[in-house]
Design a protein that fits this description.
Strand content of chain A: under 5%
Oligomer: heterotrimer
CATH topology of chain A: Four Helix Bundle (Hemerythrin (Met), subunit A)
Shape of chain C: elongated
Largest sheet of chain C: 6 strands, mixed
Chains: A mainly alpha (202), B mainly alpha (659), C alpha+beta (329)
Number of domains of chain C: 2
Distance between the termini of chain A: 74 Å
CATH class of the largest domain in chain C: Mainly Beta
Chain lengths: 202, 659, 329
């Protein structure tokens, strides 16, 4: 009987690891589809970026100090997210949770700045229905913001799971995936920063 | 108060047409009948436990196919209504609005809610069995994909009786589909119905790419996979790359309609041509997404019923993959007449023609699979053989359409209508029917009646030619697609009537063919003989090594693969008295059922419904429901369960022994 | 086995059926194959060339398919020539990669040449002075403006035969497509854009004109008459229309632009610059506007000059050929 149970446990472990590796691969596939999603949004933005419809353009609207702060915060959060993974690999669960929390808080700071920026623009009369340029702008930047929001909710859930269950095959895989996701959003933001903001005010 | 309710109801429910009232009554009666039957036979629990919450790929596949046949019925009725209206000049059968709604829903339903789920059904049922896996990579996600498709399709079909159907064509070009020209909720139904089911399709694509790349039985190298599995891989990769474009495009169209955006509007700096480009960047690959798996089905069937190895395996793989790649570079051939200039047109004309090369190679390989074989004519093979002439001619007219300056004369005419029906019916529908007949015994453990099946086959085939060949002629006579009537007095006698009558006759012949198929299924369920050995066609690939229907765990022990057509070779070894030794049984890990996919998709449906009508008190709770179910899922342990060796032994004995 | 014989017969019937459709094309009902102008004639030639090129490969394949299915059917007692493991032959496979490649290469060459020769914005070379007709697709009628003659029509155009006609097209409604099958292929009409299409009729007659792209409820009613007449008749007609004194006013246009189905109408004049106004309708005041692709209005002047095409030799020969074979119809 005991032998049987042991076999089953061993079997169980190998099976679980295999299963987690499937999920990691699936997550990569998801990221590929997300790359295409953002590519289409970027393409439409680039096509429509000159169509101001008599409304305000990037020079009047973009406040670069705020945008640069957003960029700096998001880049830092990518770094802290990397530190979280390093802590996990060193087996330090406290460090892991701590760095994840820092990452999440930086994410919230980023979102706050972004929402403030949007509110400011809307108050200036630059809404989504003002011009094709603004429709494309809000959709592209907003989709990135939505991704960040989802990432923060996910991170919060993951922190709770780490506190409850500690590190195991499953939570490890989830930490790895969220860090992938977070770096991915960072790269997208760098494109947003250069194509939307820098090219807009140049 | 009462007046308010009345006004609301008259806008909310589609009114004013006896056909619609008829449909209302039919829908209510069907629902009552279903509820009554389930309650009478005390089947609610069975429905919930065995089907709604299931994560078993075989059951999900059956549900996909069941839905797609229902959708085939609805799309088919749409087609017959249209053909009736067009049979004679000046028919007063459908008015213009109704006709426009019907050709729109016909297109959407046939491609997205018939062909796609039929294809996913075949993916689900066969891929794990063909590659020697116990399930797909993500069974939970698979169930979620199905229910997203289901509720998306429900939302779309609801527009028929509630709010009004979309009527701007199956690809809904703005500005016609924009809020100025389509102020009703029909386009919103279109957007949300497709969006919700499209997310499901995207996840299915990811699911099968991972399944095929990571879950093949030991020894099954990529170049030893069955051809159907290859076709699923190429189709799934194409889904992964094409469907995000659809998601974004529909979202942008919705932003325009809902939030006053200017992506595709005329005013505000929008660009409607961008929509046409984007939708075809998805739409063209989409055609290959549905036809590639049909190619896979045919490859299996030609080999099996010629009792011969598939000819030119490597060529076939190469051809399929190059079709998948080329499909992304041809989209502009759908609008050569947009005036993009000779350079653009010449480029897309040539890329389109290039697709004919691998397709031609595939035809030759299929022919030479039959060459020096021993061909028998069971129903799956009949469909496969009849596919060749249909597709060859459809492919030829496709090449003719790709010649850009000639396309100026074919574009938007019945020549085009005839062409795409020829490749989509001849390729996709014939292919999926062939697949259904071929794998039916594996799904249900008995064969479908051959005699009625052949009647159905002949009605479909003859009906097909009678319906669509005249349409090429109509195109050359200058008849444009989507016209709801065609003789306008004014002294024009275009001479369109005779061929239209012939075409309508053909459509009804195909309708009779469909009735034969329904009868065939019903008759076979009543009178079938159980298939005992699980291998009724003397099959070649792994799925035929399992009992029919396969047990929940598919394979008691995972097979070891040494070659293509592994089951055929194994049978040869068994005949020679040297079967491959089976490893000892081990406990099998299986995933748990879950109600979350169903509930989460229902929440999407509620959210979608809210967005259709702009009712935030529906939309927001719906979205919250989606978020909550996702979080709940993330916190679930979901460890699955083990089937013990004793249980496996018992199951194996009962299935194999019962026969 | 009776069934399979029937199957074979059906397969044999398919190309026959298609050929019948094509051969009976001499019937005047197949208007695409009965062109009355050089553009339509070249397009017909191209259709015939491509059909034949495709048939070269399709017909043998269909015959081969019928033969193989028939020859290798499983009869009781058939033992010969069964090779269950034969699945690869490099020579054969190279052959059938090569055949479609060769055919497609020829077809692609022909297509590219014709694509440049038949580019719709390219003027037709002629000694006669080109007539310009401006076209606006409305919901659900066609408005035609004659900028040089100063008249306007609805659902009806008249122009002299053997004279190139330059159509400038736009739309004040969802996208449509302007198609006179017997004169040549169609082109889209789109809001905010001006497209150009050149056609010519080689003989007088009334030709069927239709709207080829779905644009909403009553688009099926949007057909028009394109009448080619002699030069004298055309001039007389213009005078006659001018004499009616029935002017299209700005208000009148606003009315006409509303969704409706209309009979043929003729107007003695129309507001100055109406076509440009329609094209630039959505360009906000003071902004640069959005010239998305194609030929936006401002570039019209440049486009008026005949473009010196790279493949002018081909273009000439195809047009000349068109004129010489035209007598046969």
């Amino acid at each position: 009987m005991a032998h049987h149970a042991a076999a089953q446990t061993a079997h169980h472990h190998s099976h679980e690891e295999e299963h987690e590796s499937l999920k990691t691969m699936g997550f990569w596939m998801f990221l590929i589809t997300d790359v295409i999603l953002f590519s289409v949004l970027f393409a439409t933005f680039i096509i429509l970026r000159g169509n101001f419809n008599g409304g305000p353009g990037p020079h009047e609207l973009f406040q670069m100090p705020g945008v640069i702060a957003e960029t700096f915060i998001l880049l830092t959060s990518s770094f802290t997210c990397g530190l979280a993974v390093l802590s996990m690999n060193a087996g330090k669960i406290k460090g892991l949770i701590g760095w994840l929390a820092v990452t999440g808080i930086l994410g919230i700071a980023f979102l706050t700045l972004e929402i403030t920026e949007f509110v400011h623009m809307v108050n200036e009369g630059a809404t989504i229905s003002t011009s094709a340029f603004l429709t494309a702008f809000y959709t592209l930047v907003g989709t990135h913001g939505l991704h960040v929001t989802i990432g923060i909710v996910w991170m919060t859930g993951l922190i709770i799971q780490l506190k409850r269950n500690g590190l195991n095959v499953k939570t490890k895989r989830k930490v790895n995936n969220i860090s992938l996701y977070w770096h991915f959003l960072d790269i997208i933001w760098i494109f947003v920063f250069s194509f939307v903001y820098l090219m807009g005010v140049m | 108060m009462w007046e308010n309710i009345k006004t609301f109801a008259s806008e909310f429910f589609v009114t004013g047409d006896p056909l619609i009232y008829g449909a209302d009554v039919a829908i209510v009666l069907t629902l009552v009948a279903i509820v009554f039957t389930l309650s009478y036979f005390k089947k609610w629990k069975w429905l919930w436990k065995d089907w709604i919450t299931t994560v078993d790929h075989k059951k999900i596949g059956i549900m996909y196919i069941l839905c797609s046949i229902l959708m085939l019925f609805r799309g088919g009725v749409d087609a017959l209504l249209m053909r009736t209206q067009l049979a004679m000049p000046d028919m007063q059968f459908l008015n213009a609005e109704h006709y426009n709604a019907i050709f729109t829903t016909h297109g959407v339903i046939m491609i997205l809610f018939m062909a796609m789920p039929f294809m996913f059904g075949l993916f689900n049922i066969m891929v794990p069995l063909q590659i020697g896996a116990r399930d797909v990579a993500f069974p939970f996600l698979n169930s979620l994909s199905f229910w997203l498709f289901f509720w998306g399709a429900m939302l779309f079909n609801m527009s028929f009786v509630i709010g009004g159907s979309p009527d701007a064509g199956w690809l809904a070009y703005p500005p016609l589909s924009g809020i100025d020209h389509s102020p009703g909720v029909g386009q919103n139904f279109y957007i949300w119905g497709i969006q919700i089911s499209g997310i499901g399709s995207l996840m299915t694509g990811i699911n099968f790419v991972v399944t095929i790349l990571k879950m093949r039985a030991p020894g099954m190298k990529l170049m030893k996979m069955p051809m159907f599995t290859w076709s699923v891989l190429s189709s799934s990769l194409t889904i992964m790359l094409a469907f995000p474009i659809l998601t974004v495009t529909l979202a942008m169209l919705f932003i325009d309609r809902f939030a006053g955006g200017h992506f595709f509007t005329l005013d505000g700096g929008g660009n409607p041509m961008m929509y046409i480009n984007l939708i075809w960047m998805w739409g063209h690959p989409e055609v290959y997404i549905v036809v590639l798996p049909a190619f896979g089905v045919f490859s299996e069937i030609f080999a099996t019923f010629s009792k011969k190895k598939l000819f030119g395996y490597t060529s076939m793989v190469l051809a399929m993959m190059s079709i998948a790649v080329f499909s992304f570079f041809t989209w502009a051939h759908h609008f050569f007449t947009m005036g993009s200039g000779a350079n653009v047109n010449a480029f897309f004309a040539v890329t389109t023609m290039l697709i004919a090369i691998p397709t031609g190679v595939k035809i030759f390989n299929w022919l030479f699979t039959m060459y020096k074989g021993k061909i028998t004519f069971e129903t799956p093979m009949m469909w496969a053989i009849s596919f060749i002439p249909v597709f060859v001619i459809g492919g030829m007219t496709g090449v003719m359409l790709s010649v850009a300056p000639a396309d100026f004369q074919f574009h938007n005419s019945y020549f085009l209508v005839a062409h795409f029906h020829q490749v989509l019916i001849g390729g996709v529908v014939f292919g999926f029917f062939a697949g259904l007949y071929y794998w039916w015994p594996k799904m249900f453990g008995f064969r479908l009646n051959e005699r009625i099946g052949k009647w159905a086959f002949w009605f479909w085939n003859i009906g097909f030619y009678v319906c669509f060949m005249p349409q090429y002629g109509l195109g050359l006579m200058g008849m444009t697609r989507r016209v709801n009537e065609y003789d306008w007095g004014q002294g024009w006698d275009m001479g369109w009537m005779p061929l239209n009558i012939v075409s309508t006759t053909g459509a009804f012949l195909m309708g009779i063919g469909f009735l034969f198929q329904v009868w065939q299924i019903a008759y076979s369920i009543k009178t079938h003989k159980r298939d005992v050995n699980g291998d009724p066609w003397n099959g070649r690939t792994l799925e035929w090594s399992t009992p029919s229907p396969a047990p929940v765990y598919n394979f008691a022990t995972l097979p070891k693969i040494q070659e293509v057509d592994s089951w055929w070779e194994e049978k040869e070894r068994i005949k020679a008295g040297k079967p491959t030794p089976q490893p000892p049984l081990e406990p099998i890990h299986m995933p748990d059922n879950s109600a979350i996919p169903f509930i989460q998709s229902l929440c999407w449906f509620v959210a979608g419904f809210g967005f259709v009508f702009g009712w935030m008190f529906f939309a927001i709770p719906g979205l919250i429901g989606v978020a909550v179910t996702m979080i709940v899922r993330s916190f679930q342990k979901d460890d699955g369960y083990y089937i013990s060796v004793d249980e496996i032994k018992k199951t194996e004995a009962s299935i194999r022994g019962a026969g | 086995m009776k069934k399979s014989r029937l199957a074979k017969r059906i397969f044999a019937a398919v190309p026959l059926l298609l050929m019948t459709v094509l051969l009976s094309a001499c019937s005047e009902k197949y208007i695409v194959l009965d062109p009355k102008g050089p553009i339509g004639q070249s397009q017909k030639d191209l259709i015939i060339i491509t059909t034949l090129l495709c048939a070269v490969i399709i017909v043998p394949v269909l015959i081969l398919a019928g033969f193989i299915v028939w020859r290798y059917r499983d009869k009781p007692g058939r033992k010969d020539d069964y090779k269950p493991k034969w699945s690869h032959d490099t020579r054969l496979e190279v052959t059938w990669w090569a055949i479609p490649i060769i055919i497609i290469a020829i077809l692609a060459t022909v297509t590219v040449r014709y694509t440049y020769a038949l580019e719709p914005s390219r003027p037709i070379e002629s000694a006669e002075k080109t007539v310009t007709i401006q076209v606006a697709s409305l919901d659900w009628k066609w408005l035609f403006l004659y900028p040089e003659e100063g008249i306007a029509t609805v659902n009806y155009i008249k122009f002299p035969d053997n004279v190139p006609v330059r159509f400038e097209l736009t739309s004040d409604a969802p996208m449509n497509s302007f198609w006179i099958p017997q004169l040549g292929g169609q082109i889209y009409t789109m809001s905010g854009m001006a497209m150009t299409l050149h056609l010519q009729a080689d003989q007088t007659g009334k030709y069927f004109g239709s709207s080829a792209n779905f644009s909403g409820k009553d688009f099926a009613q949007m057909r028009f008459v394109a009448e080619a007449s002699t030069k004298d008749e055309f001039d007389a007609w213009v005078k006659e229309v001018k004499a009616t004194g029935n002017a299209l006013t700005t208000d009148g246009y606003e009315q006409l632009q509303k969704p409706s189905v209309e009979e043929q109408q003729q107007f003695s004049s129309f507001p100055e610059g109406l076509f440009q106004k329609i094209v630039t309708k959505y360009v906000p005041e003071g902004s640069q506007g959005h010239h998305h692709g194609g030929g936006a209005v401002s570039s019209n002047e440049q486009k008026q000059k005949p473009v010196q095409p790279e493949t002018s030799e081909d273009a000439d020969s195809s047009h000349n050929a068109a004129q010489s074979t035209h007598a046969g119809h």
